[in-house]
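Side project, low priority. Logging it here so it doesn't get lost.
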Amino acid sequence: MNILAALKQEEAKLNKQAHKVQQQLDAVRAAVKILGRDAASSGKPIGRKKRVMSAAARARISEATKARWAKFRAAKAKGKR
């Protein structure tokens, strides 16, 4: 086999690999675009927004939790007597 034919064969192989890599790169870029990572460069948050709970809701949850624990401690204290 002469050198020129070997070089052309190697070139064809590398072109095929380059095409595969380009397709993979395009797929990754598409996924990034779909997931909204373009916003990352602008400093905007990525993904879902953080849920915000109102102060009233936090207070209700706190009171309910305190009541549950008080009930638990009372039952535990009754059992020790």
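Brief comment: The longest helix spans residues 3-35.
Revisit when time allows.
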